[in-house]
Design goal:
Radius of gyration of chain B: 18 Å
Helix content of chain B: 25-40%
Order of helices and strands of chain A: EEHEEEHHHH
Strand content of chain A: 15-25%
Number of strands of chain B: 14
Number of strands of chain A: 5
Largest interface: A-B, 41 and 39 residues
Shape of chain B: globular
Distance between the termini of chain B: 34 Å
Strand order of the largest sheet of chain A: 2-1-5-3-4
Radius of gyration of chain A: 16 Å
Structural class of chain A: alpha+beta
Structural class of chain B: alpha+beta
Order of helices and strands of chain B: EHEHEEEHHHHHHEEEEEEEEEHHH
Distance between the termini of chain A: 31 Å
Oligomer: heterodimer
Number of helices of chain A: 5
Shape of chain A: elongated
Largest sheet of chain A: 5 strands, mixed
Strand content of chain B: 15-25%
Strand order of the largest sheet of chain B: 4-5-10-6-7
């Protein structure tokens, strides 16, 4: 098994991947068809990333790939080889919540909680990409994340507060865009 | 949902990808961002035996001012097209429309070359490249060739690309200062257009339709009326002429024909009013 991304000339049914997940290296050999979300949940054992629609619509499986939000149900683990992934488990600093997590708690930006890990990850990516977020930016920027409980109002409030709190702080989530 | 088993290989160069495609023929598919292909594979509507991953070919991710046109690398992501200063200045229709594709997560992965190669009539960018009169550059085992966008879309999810060809570049003639309009009608923000319209004015005006037939379509009747000097409402009245829009759960054929006429008028009104700076929707 190699720890470097490698190019090969012969297609193979299994693939060796080295993915830094929440700052920790993971090295595994997986079936080529393994989706990133499966890799995170079943191979690495981090079940905070939820599978919702499984069709690139709902955003529950959103994680950061090299600091940018992606839907991990529509990325192959092989495509994340050699890259860094941040999941909801990787945001908090010990017992201290990430500012975006803290804002979701403060503003009660959730009801059932199923969409929340994806919402928080999408919000962190959005806040990292923008210097200042208007309410309209937040509503548009969360178009890839569906919530069936809240009606979104508290989520939008939370994201705006979380983005404010993040400005001037590092996210620990990579370089962003 | 998990794709059917396949063999995976990562290409280390464009020529390497062409060699792999040549070797594996129809059994192989290219994957870049994967946001058209992987959903089809998860539904088992596509079951390639070999996936050739070109997503690491960073040399195909660029936007360059190339004099009379803008050169966009085939692997340039929607996110990067949306935020390109060169495109915002010289082809703002494409930059604006790229920001309307899917959602931020999709735009972080999907590429312009992948979107064009997939040839989905419901996709946004193919119609924009049609309206702008772009050219596709493809490399295959017999070398490089250019394909005019009007010759590129051949049928439903079918392009003029040979099985061993890779889109390396998309050339967009400059439309600096020309007004544009982009209309996308859908039920949920992230959905494909039920009907969409891409329109640009200036010296090389063009109007193209999303989801009004089996391929991305040029609105030829509208363009002919515009060439005769027709106003937006008169030109838009023939928006559905020559189209064969589908009926599905989202809309009937008649509804789509009506939408096309309404949306073309809106897009043309934006063209007239925007002078390259405006946006619509």
């Amino acid at each position: 098994m190699t720890s470097e991304p490698r190019n090969s000339t012969a297609p193979t049914a299994s693939v060796s991947v080295s993915i830094a997940v929440n700052g920790r290296p993971t090295d595994n050999t997986v079936e080529a068809r393994t989706l990133l979300v499966q890799y995170l949940r079943e191979t690495v054992g981090l079940t905070g990333t939820n599978i919702g629609c499984d069709t690139t619509s709902c955003g529950a499986c959103t994680v950061l790939l090299d600091g940018e939000s992606v839907k991990s149900c529509t990325v192959l683990a092989a495509q994340a080889d050699g890259r860094s992934v941040t999941t909801i488990e990787g945001l908090a600093d010990g017992e201290t919540l990430h500012p975006m997590q803290e804002a979701f708690r403060e503003y009660h930006g959730l009801q059932c909680g199923y969409c929340t890990p994806g919402m928080v990850m999408a919000a962190v990516s959005l806040a990292t990409e923008h210097d200042a977020l208007s309410e309209s930016d937040v509503r548009t920027g969360l178009e890839g994340n569906l919530c069936r409980c809240t009606g979104y109002h508290n989520i939008v409030r939370a994201v705006m507060a979380g983005a404010d709190a993040m400005s001037g702080t590092t996210t620990g989530a990579g370089s962003g865009a | 949902m998990i794709p059917a088993a396949f063999d995976y290989v990562r290409a280390d160069s464009v020529d390497g990808a062409v060699a792999l495609l040549t070797e594996h023929g129809d059994d192989a598919k290219l994957i870049a961002g994967g946001h058209s292909l992987l959903p089809l594979m998860k539904l088992r509507l596509a079951t390639p035996a070999v996936l050739v991953d070109v997503s690491r070919l960073d040399e195909l991710s660029y936007v360059r001012d190339a004099g009379d046109h803008v050169a966009v690398g085939g692997l340039t992501r929607h996110h990067d097209v949306e935020h390109s200063d060169v495109l915002r200045e010289h082809a703002p229709l494409l930059a604006f429309a790229a920001g309307q594709v899917g959602d931020p997560q999709v735009r972080h992965r999907g590429t312009i070359g992948g979107s064009l190669a997939h040839a989905d009539p419901a996709s946004d960018l193919p119609a924009c490249v049609l309206a702008l009169g772009g050219t596709i550059v493809a490399r295959g085992s017999s070398g490089e060739r250019t394909i005019a966008i009007d010759d590129f879309f051949q049928g439903f999810l079918e392009s003029a690309l040979a099985p061993d060809e890779v889109i390396t570049e998309v050339r967009i003639p400059k439309a600096t200062g020309a007004g544009f309009g982009f209309e996308k009608f859908n039920r949920r923000a992230q959905d494909w257009a039920i009907v969409g319209v891409a329109a640009v004015g200036g010296d090389r005006p063009g109007v193209a339709l999303v989801n009004m037939g089996s391929t991305p379509l040029r609105a030829a009747a509208v363009e002919a009326r515009l060439a005769e000097g027709a106003a937006p409402d008169a030109a838009a009245a023939v928006a559905d002429e020559g189209t064969e829009p589908p009926s599905d759960l989202n809309a009937s054929e008649d509804y789509r024909r009506h939408l096309a006429r309404v949306l073309v008028e809106r897009a043309l009104t934006s063209v007239a009013g925007s002078n390259g700076t405006g946006a619509t929707r």
